[in-house]
Amino acid sequence: MSHLDPDQIALIALGEPVATPSDRVHLSECAQCAADVEETTRVARIARSTLDDAGLQHPSEQVWSHIADELGLADRQGSARPRRRSPRRTRIVWILAASLTLVVGVSAAVWGLVLRPTVVTVAVATLDALPDHPGVTGTADVEADRDGARTLVVTLDGVPTSGSFREVWLIRSDTTALISLGILTSGRGTFAIPDDVDLRQYDLVDISAEPLDGNPAHSGDSIVRGTLTIT
Asked: Which residue has better confidence, 11 or 125?
């Protein structure tokens, strides 16, 4: 009697829908193949039961211990525990081990993409109104993407919409230097932060009222200002 291929045995044990009607008939009649499927299914169940969210990247020692036991390899203390295994049975278990390793690796990659946020907030600030602009409120968040690129997201409420435009600045804590990030055209804006800007030095977020005079310098009329806190 010809037996099922070891590859097919391993896939059936993993629950893959690969068994044909004739394969199922064969399993009902062939004690050896049925035993191979049962034993390989048991190993797969043990391996899967040891996987959790914290161990997706590498199968646990328990997984490899059971696989080594099925293969008749030496235990972790170096004492041999020889068990008679046919080349066919050994091949089936190795196929199962390789399949489980692939599943674990793919799961780790998928979980890494799903669980790791696209952007993370790395600094925040509350923007307080200066005396000439009572009632204005604002916030500033620095977000970093997976590649480390940073953006400043600002919101501003309660400021008049006419008479001047609003410019967003990063200012050194000692006020000796400043960087313009752009113009805030609505109540919310997103601005790229240059890669070489150290937010531990340029930690003041300032939004100023700028007259339409063509002068690129800060007008000196700050609407709101706040200090970034690194999260």
From this structure: 125
